[in-house]
Amino acid sequence: MTATDPWIRRFFPSPEAPVQLVCLPHAGGSASFFRPVAQALNPRVEVLSVQYPGRQDRHNEPMIDTIDGLACHVSRAVTRTVNRPFALFGHSMGATLAFEVAVRLERAGRFAERVFVSGRRAPSCHRDERVHRRDDAGIIAELRGLSGTDQRVFGDEELMRMILPALRNDYRAVETYVWASEHRLRSPLTALTGDDDPKASHDEVRAWSAHTAGDFEMKSYPGGHFFLIDHAPDVISVIGERLARPAATPR
């Protein structure tokens, strides 16, 4: 693994890859979540995985509890480190963040080949969610219900104490997010969802189509919020296939 920027991790550097994929983790997640994706796409695509402050090797750094704040930092990191055609992939909170990063980059004249949003409703679809205001037991119950965490983690009290602050911080960021921009992306957009995801209905995911002037597609998989774990080979195949196509982004 290499880290040329505090925000970016390269698990499998691929300097000859024609395209780079910037991956943004879910709430409570870290860059290592995308290590299998980086390995599977290497050497066709170089994966740059975003590492939020307050976890893993950045655990001593202050966390950022707004999507706007995160998007500003990540967009600057992408500008510093991306040196080829690029795409964005975000899951759950990371999907909302990917959208906001893409907006900022487009305003600066940089356009993603494609934006992949996974496990998240469109920015224009608001829900009044307040998980970040729950006590620790309430946040743990939410996490259990999403079935994306190894059950052994819940039995490790020390580990739970370590990850709960990041979870609460990230839930606060995504639950207080307010879509405030009418900007429609020029980049094509692929929305991925589980057909039983309690966090995003099909109608809410389909609403992503209104946020791009480029091509839009929606793909549904059996499963809940973390469908992409069970269907990793299929999801990775979709990413690889879409990024192998010529760019269709209006310039």
Automatic annotation (TrEMBL):
<feature type="domain" description="Thioesterase TesA-like">
    <location>
        <begin position="22"/>
        <end position="243"/>
    </location>
</feature>
<dbReference type="InterPro" id="IPR012223">
    <property type="entry name" value="TEII"/>
</dbReference>
<protein>
    <submittedName>
        <fullName>Alpha/beta fold hydrolase</fullName>
    </submittedName>
</protein>
<dbReference type="InterPro" id="IPR001031">
    <property type="entry name" value="Thioesterase"/>
</dbReference>
<keyword id="KW-0378">Hydrolase</keyword>
<dbReference type="InterPro" id="IPR020802">
    <property type="entry name" value="TesA-like"/>
</dbReference>
<dbReference type="GO" id="GO:0016787">
    <property type="term" value="F:hydrolase activity"/>
</dbReference>
<dbReference type="Pfam" id="PF00975">
    <property type="entry name" value="Thioesterase"/>
</dbReference>
<comment type="similarity">
    <text>Belongs to the thioesterase family.</text>
</comment>
<dbReference type="InterPro" id="IPR029058">
    <property type="entry name" value="AB_hydrolase_fold"/>
</dbReference>
